[in-house]
Amino acid sequence: MLELFPLAVARVQLQPDPLDSARLFQQVLHWRGDSIGNPLEGCAWTGDLHGVHQVHRSPDAAWLLAQLRLQVGKYLEDLGFREGGVAVHIQRSWPVVSEPGQLVGRHHHPNAHISAVYHLNGDGSGRCGALRLFNPMALNELVPGMAVGSQGPLRPDARLNAAHHDIPALAGQLLLFPARLDHGVLENSSEEVRLSIAFDLVLSAPAGPCSTEYLPPHPSLWDPLSENGGLMP
């Protein structure tokens, strides 16, 4: 049987200096402060909802940013992008802190093109949570919605009809995947806090006077529509 049109997820195990990891770990806890979670009960604390969305500008994250540049380049190359064909921009980056019992609900990032997640801790068992990637099409289900409910004809172990795939949190693990893919983070069922850093990355045409069809022009060519920064009246 041919298995066509795969979803490409980069999974890279980084080997950072333990002191660098410890400094970033402590910085994330400092950013969170006394907060426990997001407004919705049971949700992990995510910095983007609390004014912490520029982690990549922190000196404590410089080593992680260097690794991100390298791995995003390899990811795009593996996807078939021509060298120099696109420019990549960090739109925002934020910490996620999950106390025991907390999770991150299903969502995606329509504002970005590539999502990246770096796990600061985790033992790979899944007890402290896992990134859940949802099947975006479920074409092999044949009849839409057939797999939903207890009376469905599909076996639970039907690999070609998997509704999702889980990647357990593991310290030093960097993941890259398409930002429009629905994803979430499973509940932290351990007794330890789980920390990670998330990135939204955007592709544009390279810098220069020329543009490329379907790619937004390089941000250096953008101008606000009005003197108030382009805000709607």
Task: Provide a descriptive summary of the structure in words.
The protein is α+β, with helices and mostly antiparallel strands and 233 residues long. 14% of the residues lie in helices and 25% in strands. It has two helices and ten strands. The protein has helices at 18-32, 62-79; strands at residues 10-13, 45-46, 87-98, 104-107, 114-119, 130-134, 164-168, 173-178, 183-185, 194-204.
Question: Outline of this structure?
Answer:
The chain has 233 residues and is of the alpha+beta class. It has a single domain (10-138, 159-219), classed as q2cbj1_9rhob like domain (Jelly Rolls, Sandwich), CATH 2.60.120.620. The protein is 14% helix and 25% strand.
Under the CATH scheme, which architecture would be assigned?
Sandwich
Main sheet characteristics: 6 strands, antiparallel
Structural class: alpha+beta
> Averaging pLDDT over every residue, what do you get?
93
Shape: globular
How many angstroms separate the termini? 57 Å
CATH topology: Jelly Rolls
Count of discrete structural domains: 1
Number of helical stretches of at least 4 residues = 2
Number of strands: 10
User: Helical content, roughly?
Assistant: 10-25%
**Percent range for β-strand residues:** 15-25%
Q: Give start-end ranges of low-pLDDT stretches.
A: none
- In the sheet with the most strands, the strands line up as 1-8-5-10-3-2
| CATH level-1 class | Mainly Beta
List SSEs in N-to-C order: EHEHEEEEEEEE
* Radius of gyration computed on alpha carbons: 20 Å
